[in-house]
Design goal:
The complex is a heterodimer of chains A (333) and B (314). Chain A contains eleven helices and twelve strands. Chain A has 333 residues and is an alpha/beta fold. In chain A, the strands form two sheets. Chain A has an eight-stranded mixed sheet, sandwiched between helices. The mean pLDDT of chain A is 84. Chain B has 314 residues and is mainly alpha-helical. Helix content of chain B is 68%, strand content 0%. Chain B is elongated and about 75 Å long. The two termini of chain B are 27 Å apart. The N terminus of chain B is likely disordered. The chains are: A alpha/beta (333), B mainly alpha (314). At the A-B interface, helix 2, helix 3 and helix 6 of A face helix 9 and helix 10 of B.
Chain lengths: 333, 314
């Protein structure tokens, strides 16, 4: 049994015009100790999926309409707020995109780390302080003991993200959700944070959901990849399989949009982009949601009439498209 | 000015910066860390009007506290030989119609006025914080209901409302005045706190705190309310003059503190009958009121600029 099983999750936001289907039937599993990466462009439902798992979606306007989230054998969707609070930070932890705003400016770093320790592990002040120093050392903050008394404004962005990681790891959670942990950081700092996350993940034997829109990050850190588009999973595979044999036209386009310094054209080539915009999730296309932007979909094609199902092309490789790459090739031959 | 223990704590934390050996930075002098409160203090100090206002304010408060202790005159002892005594070395502000020393009586009245002002302001802040944070934190329908209730109370005119409350009690004394003024003017504080809580609770660090399982009282007490402190400090100095003016007005029209007890309002009332012959009797308490209100406003202005530099015009 997987550590986390998300089945047919639907999270809608109520607005005046109706329901925005931010997450619309998402399913995936995370095995203990593995990293699952969720990729997709802005607004595809990556973060809402993560917040739904954490039980942190803003209610109202958002609500989980249907589906199940089983974590370590326990169903999370029906849990009371107080039960979820006991789980959050202890078994499930999350780090957010912007470390500059994720720490309270009026509390010392030490207070913010020990807060979690005394909350979940019932540590005394002295114990918690000691543990906080260890945690800061673990995330490579130099002179950890002295820096515990500092306020966040004395920390740089990368250091703050390290503090966020320290807080997330403080109770040895089984699952860490990292929502674009490096997006707001300098490129030079990004690699360091990713390495640190990977190292600590192995050390603490955690599973991780890594949410990102950066294919480079995926290649570096993930074991499995879920590609999301317009609130749905469009492709799911192991990381090598996905990069070697992308099946969904959207995944192909995403990989094609990566800047390429070598190869033909090299530096002079224009960056590829995907024409069109993601659909309005208030009223998504009736059939395949990618059809309006898909180079392989033709008007009158069955995929513009009937929604394609997620199907397993090869063991462990799932695709939601009427025109996966391997089948296109077969037709062409 | 109220001493803020947190401010002290912040200042003590200002330590020698961590470049090089302790006490030795490259420029030779120890570099002090600037904390938020230290920054605010430096900004406040740069504002001349606010500094002068603070000095005036402290001087006035010191005057009303100290003078009744050291004055040789009994503020209630009638001595007709000194009735309407002019300003002199013996009586720096002259005497009233009963020959009581005004310098002492204005200080005594100031104690009552400022005391009522501070007590009512603290009560207003207390109620405002509780009401506003419940309303803002829980939000939704409860928030809507609580705010509509406030809107209804807002419709009541301030002073008549306070007068009605004082009349519900048989006697009028300092406590009744505090209660009446509090009940008549806590609404704005509640709204201010609610607005702060609503904008603060959208912060990422609140979400981050929730993500590690912090419970609601911890989020409210640790993450939201301390961040409203700056705004609340400013609000105290904006609210204080209004309350003191309300008290003075009620006492002036005879519905507040009554003679022979002194408050600035009742002292002005004493002087009203003879304002042509002895204008100083109404002028002196009026100047005291104006002094306090103006200095409080300038302090509030300076604090606002100091605590929230984004609002400052450059």
């Amino acid at each position: 049994m997987a550590l986390l099983e998300v089945r047919d999750l639907r999270t809608y936001f109520k607005v005046r015009e109706g329901d925005v289907r931010a997450v619309d039937g998402v399913s995936f599993e995370v095995e203990a100790g593995k990293t699952l990466s969720i990729v997709g462009e802005s607004g595809c439902g990556k973060s809402v999926t993560a917040l739904s798992i954490m039980g942190l979606i803003p209610k109202p306007p958002a609500r989980i309409v249907s589906g199940s989230i089983r974590f370590d054998g326990e169903e999370l969707t029906g849990l009371k707020e107080s039960e979820l609070e006991n789980l959050r930070g202890r078994e499930l932890a999350m780090i957010f995109q912007d470390p500059m705003t994720s720490l309270n400016p009026t509390l010392t770093i030490g207070t913010q780390i020990t807060e979690t320790l005394s909350r979940h592990l019932g540590m005394s002040r002295g114990e918690a302080n000691k543990r906080a120093v260890e945690l800061l050392e673990e995330v490579r903050i130099p002179r950890a003991k002295a820096r515990l008394k500092d306020y966040p404004h004395r920390y740089s962005g990368g250091m703050r993200q390290r503090v966020m990681i320290a807080i997330a790891l403080s109770c040895n959670p089984k699952l860490l959700i990292a929502d674009e942990p490096t997006t707001a950081l300098d490129v030079t700092v990004q690699a360091g944070i990713l390495d640190l996350l990977e190292e600590l993940r192995t050390e603490h034997q955690m599973a991780m959901i890594l949410i990102t829109h950066d294919m480079g990050v995926v290649a570096e850190a993930a074991d499995d990849v879920v590609v999301m588009y317009a609130g749905q999973v469009v492709e799911q595979a192991g990381v090598l399989e996905l990069f070697d044999n992308p099946e969904h036209p959207y995944t192909e386009a995403l990989l094609g949009a990566l800047p390429n310094l070598e190869g033909e054209g090299g530096r002079e080539a224009r960056l590829a982009s995907i024409p069109g915009r993601p659909p309005d999730l208030l009223d998504p296309p009736p059939a395949c949601r990618f059809a309006p932007r898909c180079p392989h979909a033709n008007l009158g094609d069955y995929c513009t009439v009937e929604p394609p199902e997620l199907r397993e092309l090869r063991p462990g490789h799932w695709v939601r498209s009427a025109h996966p790459a391997s089948e296109r090739a077969a037709v062409a031959v | 000015m109220a001493v803020n223990p947190q401010q002290e704590e912040f200042r003590e934390r200002a330590v020698v910066a961590d470049t090089g050996a302790p006490g030795m930075s490259t420029a030779g002098a120890p570099v002090r860390q600037t904390s938020l409160w230290r920054d605010a203090w430096l900004r406040y100090r740069a504002n001349k009007a606010a500094v002068i206002a603070a000095i005036f304010f402290i001087a006035l408060v010191a005057y009303v506290i100290i003078v009744p202790f050291v004055s040789p005159y009994d503020p209630y002892a009638v001595d007709f030989s000194q009735a309407y005594a002019p300003v002199s070395l013996k009586h720096p502000l002259g005497c009233d119609q009963y020959g009581r020393d005004l310098f002492t009586r204005v200080a005594l009245g100031g104690r009552v006025s400022i005391g009522i002002g501070f007590a009512a302001t603290i009560a207003i802040m207390g109620i405002g914080i509780v009401y506003g944070s419940i309303s803002g934190f829980i939000g939704g329908r409860l928030d809507n209901g609580m705010m509509r209730f406030l809107d209804a109370l807002y419709g009541l005119p301030y002073l008549p409302f306070a007068i009605i409350v004082t009349q519900l009690f048989r006697t009028v004394n300092i406590w009744v005045m505090i209660i009446a003024l509090t009940i008549a003017s806590w609404f704005t504080a509640a709204r201010v706190v609610r607005g702060q809580i609503i904008s603060l609770k959208e912060n990422d660090y609140v979400r981050a705190a929730r993500a590690v399982g912090a419970r609601w009282y911890r989020i409210l007490g640790r993450h939201l309310l301390p961040n409203t402190l700056g705004v609340l400090i400013v609000f105290v100095f904006l609210e204080l003059p209004g309350v003191i003016l309300g008290e003075a007005f009620l006492s002036f029209i005879g519905l507040g503190i009554n003679p022979p007890k002194a408050s600035w309002g009742s002292l002005a009332q004493d002087g009203r009958d003879v304002y042509l012959a002895h204008p100083s009797m109404i002028l002196i308490p009026s100047i005291a009121i104006a002094w306090l209100i103006l200095s409080a406003f300038f302090i509030a202005d300076g604090l606002r600029d100091a605590l929230d530099p984004r609002t400052r015009e450059t």
